Amino acid sequence: MPKQPTFPPLAVTVDLVVLTIRADRLQALTVRRGEAPYEGEWALPGGFLRPDEDLPDAAARELREETGLPADGFHLEQLASYGAPDRDPRMRTVTVAYIALAADLPAPTAGTDAAEARWQPVDELLDGPIRLAFDHSEILRDGVERARGKLEYTPLAAAFCPPEFTISELRRVYEIVWGRTLDPRNFHRKVTRTAGFLQETADTTTRDGGRPARLYRVGTITQLHPPLLR
Amino acid sequence: MPKQPTFPPLAVTVDLVVLTIRADRLQALTVRRGEAPYEGEWALPGGFLRPDEDLPDAAARELREETGLPADGFHLEQLASYGAPDRDPRMRTVTVAYIALAADLPAPTAGTDAAEARWQPVDELLDGPIRLAFDHSEILRDGVERARGKLEYTPLAAAFCPPEFTISELRRVYEIVWGRTLDPRNFHRKVTRTAGFLQETADTTTRDGGRPARLYRVGTITQLHPPLLR
DNA sequence: GCAAAAGTGTTGGGAGTACACCCATGA
DNA sequence: TCATGGGTGTACTCCCAACACTTTTGC
Q1: Where are the domains of chain B?
Q2: A228 φ/ψ angles, rounded to the nearest 5 degrees
Q3: How far apart are CA A33 and CA B1, in angstroms?
Q4: Which CATH architecture has domain B154-218?
Q5: Distance (Å) from the alpha carbon of B27 to chain A's nearest alpha carbon
Q6: Which of A118, B87, B145, B196 meets the CB 3.0–4.6 Å disulfide criterion with B219?
Q7: In chain A, which ranges are continuous DSSP H helix?
Q8: Considering only CA atoms, which of A7, A9, A12 is closest in space to residue A94?
């Protein structure tokens, strides 16, 4: 590392791609900006890294502040960093993006400092007329692609489900995130055969209609062998 | 994003996990630090982000400076960011780590500002007595794991090979990075069957001994379907 | 009974593994 | 001629997609 230069003002922020499944669609949390630049436009939630805060702590704090919910109900992982010199017109800013996956949340979630917070379907945000502020469309696109890929080789789909869920509910997560249908019977066998993916409970439910379905919790493994291919 | 706070001095750096295969081992580029902190200890190459530079540009510039070679001979991609408040005793620093993969390079590569640069086997760096400065051991570990995973589902192993290479040479990349042997005959079929992985040339070589082997260039695909599982 | 969803059985094809075998070169 | 690695053929296994079929509930 060379001698450190003088410090041109530079800020580090943390931005969040918070994903959930609502109304059978993959949706992302967006906030309406209350001030310039991009005042009144939609953006991803986020904020400045504090002086004595590690990056994961900052992400968890922002998540709590924006959703009003404890961060331990989420899967939170680092996505990537973005630092184009002109990405924020106010000053030089490097942002570290995180993705958070959650089961369907109670309300449209009011943030503490954002003017308005709203879930919006990711396909509308990415393909529709809405442009997110800053480079947040790019960050959202990368986050969604990361989530899609992660479903293949990790048991992370369960992060979109309540603590106890049926195999059909898990399958619907895959179908919604990947945008394709899966054979219910083969899917059932595949996930129950993969040791450690699911932990069977004693309970069943009929909330999806039809014959009672066994309820499962997440298992212990972190990698799927073999992966479920898209 | 909240109102921006006053600026406590904060720096953004770029660190590099530069990997190559030398002497049948996976090796990483290390530099000996010429000043405190960690003076005289080994570290990953890296440096400060410049005021008007995007992150990939900074990574490419550092790579050129440290290896003395044009950055377009490398595969360069972002790994992750690290920002523990105490990771650099001098000041608050967030680093964006990149991984670079390259074919065997000419010399032990003298950097411009590092006291000394040296390739060192990653297993010695990770399991041996050497500790890298800062949190660079953790970054190296993450980078190696990323590289191992990427070989499974991308054609990136070719980044460790010269522009024209034989299937055996490609296979040896997998064997060295994964630390296991692969059946030469099945490997041959698997990679030649995957359309777009390899582009056949008209030439052959006997540099590996035995019957002349066909030389290939990298193909056009960026994802392997199906993946080559570890 | 009927609809709906859960879960099992079966079958055919495709991919992976193991390994026998032949090919083309250098020494 | 032999050693060395390149490349093909083949048999066996296992996984997976497709789909018929049975089970268990609500209405």
Answers
A1: 10-152, 154-218
A2: -90, 110
A3: 8
A4: Orthogonal Bundle (1.10)
A5: 20
A6: B196
A7: 55-67, 122-127, 136-153, 167-178, 184-193
A8: A12
**pLDDT value at position A109?**
56
Nucleotides of D under 7 A from a protein CB: 3-9, 15-21, 23-26
Q: Which residue has the tokens 């009672």?
A: A212
User: What residues have CB less than 8 Å from A43, skipping those under 6 apart?
Assistant: A30, A31, A32, A33, A132, A133, A134, A136, B1
Chain B positions in Cβ-Cβ contact with residue A51 (cut-off 8 Å): 8, 10, 85, 92
Q: Cβ–Cβ contacts within 10 Å for residue A52, how many?
A: 10
**Amino acid B211 CA to nucleotide C23 C1' distance, rounded Å:** 8
Using one digit for the tens of pLDDT, what is the confidence trace for B161-174? 999 999 999 999 99
Antiparallel, parallel or unpaired: β A92-101 and A10-22: parallel
Q: What is d(CA A33, CA A52) in angstroms, rounded to the nearest whole number?
A: 26
CA dihedral B51, B56, B59, B60 (to 10 degrees): -110
Alpha-carbon dihedral sign for residues B74, B77, B79, B80: positive
Beta bridge partners of B77: B99
Contacts of A5 in chain B (CB under 8 A): 48, 50
Q: Do domains B10-152 and B154-218 have the same CATH topology?
A: no
Show the beta-strand stretches assigned E in chain A.
10-22, 25-32, 42-43, 46-48, 75-82, 92-101, 116-121, 198-205, 213-218
- What is the CATH T-level fold of the domain B10-152, as seen in this structure? Nucleoside Triphosphate Pyrophosphohydrolase (3.90.79)
- B54 vs B63: CA distance, rounded Å: 14
Q: What is the pLDDT of residue A2?
A: 46
Q: Is the pTM of this model over 0.85?
A: yes
Average pLDDT over residues B188-215: 94
Query: Does pLDDT of B77 surpass 70?
Result: yes
Would you tell me which residues have their CB within 7 A of strand C?
A: A 166-168, 184-186, 188-189, 192, 204, 208-214; B 183, 185-186, 189-190, 193, 204, 206, 209-212, 226, 228-229
> What mean pLDDT do residues B121-147 have?
96
pLDDT tops 60 at residue B160: yes
Judge: A96–B91 Cβ closer than 8 Å, yes or no: no
Helix A136-153 to helix A167-178 angle, to the nearest 10 degrees?
140
